[in-house]
């Protein structure tokens, strides 16, 4: 494969409902899409960076800058045999994992289309559907929370993850547990607590949660290892796992028992596959996280989640949980609490160019 042209699209996609986490509220998801043209085909990748540097240091604007001014020029005129070569080719760029991952993703789509195979089978996927969980933002009050979760449960979601922060933790979890005694339930703090909160977090132990996700700061592996000794609830790390090496360190330290895998956060699909291997060798359960992706990013997540080491329900929900109208077709739908893995070549979804242009608030073209 050689890349002839790249087009970057910045989309502003209105969410069906505001999504609030401990780091802020989002009403419109800004998504940076990468379209790579080569060998007469177009491959699509979605950058999972957000509009501000809250979840990670990257933003859609830093990603656009790094892609156009540094990453794409590194690939100029290069014959790429396989998308696994991308991390090596982009290695001169320090950091910016989400920007790099978007480029690698588009190359995987191009490669899979060229082979005429679904991305899932090229990655080594073994499932034809993946269990769907739903991530529930911080709600204005407990009745609203119970109503919202009640709807998701009725739709068939197999696990509910509640966003928590100081002031919105033990009470909403107790209310959910009381209303839904057998529901697989987890919580995600997005780094909102400090090591001094260990005693308070022990209050979560009586609710039989699957896990508590990222209670402490993104760069505090040792703090998580110490907290793990105080908690019965397993710790899952998200923000802290920025690479396969960091995953290894976290497991060696005992900082987590479960890993939330997001290919964007770890620098691409190749890195995500390495973490999958590591987790399998060690018998560590992993699952696929989400970043409110459009159907382009979700198609890739579904493909990744079809690998055998992904053993827990994912933050992969149906399209209508995020958007009234998605730029990718067909929408992802829940079937008995699962999302079917697309069967078509590449990502297995089509980008609707009319919708793409309707939601685009910026567009940049790059030529070799
Ligand atoms: O921490 O997992 C997170 C969304 C944006 C940023 C961080 C996170 C999330 C989610 C959404 O929880 C999960 C989804 O896409 O369904
Ligand atoms: Mg998280």
Could you please describe the fold and organization of this structure?
The chain is of the alpha/beta class and 368 residues long. The protein has two domains: 128 residues, Enolase-like, N-terminal domain (Enolase-like, domain 1), CATH 3.30.390.10; 220 residues, Alpha-Beta Barrel (TIM Barrel), CATH 3.20.20.120. The chain contains 13 helices and 15 strands. It has a seven-stranded parallel sheet with strand order 5-6-7-8-9-10-11. Strands 3-2-1-15 form a four-stranded antiparallel sheet. Strands 4-13 form a two-stranded antiparallel ribbon. Strand 6, helix 6 and strand 7 form a beta-alpha-beta unit. It is globular, with a radius of gyration of 20 Å. Bound molecules: 2-succinylbenzoate and magnesium ion. 2-succinylbenzoate (OSB) binds next to loops.
Largest sheet: number of strands, sense, barrel closure: 7 strands, parallel
CATH class category name of the largest domain: Alpha Beta
Shape: globular
Distance N terminus to C terminus?
Answer: 13 Å
Number of domains: 2
SSE string: EEEHHHHEEHEHEHEHEHEHHEHEEEHE
Strand content: 15-25%
SSE arrangement:
Elements: E1 5-21, E2 24-38, E3 41-47, H1 60-75, H2 86-89, H3 97-115, H4 119-123, E4 129-131, E5 133-136, H5 142-155, E6 159-163, H6 170-179, E7 185-188, H7 198-201, E8 212-213, H8 221-230, E9 235-237, H9 244-253, E10 258-261, H10 263-266, H11 269-282, E11 286-288, H12 295-305, E12 328-329, E13 338-340, E14 350-351, H13 353-359, E15 360-367
Parallel strand pairs: 5-6, 6-7, 7-8, 8-9, 9-10, 10-11
Antiparallel strand pairs: 1-2, 1-15, 2-3, 4-13, 12-14
Helix pairs in contact: 1-3, 5-6
This protein binds 2-succinylbenzoate (OSB) and magnesium ion (MG).
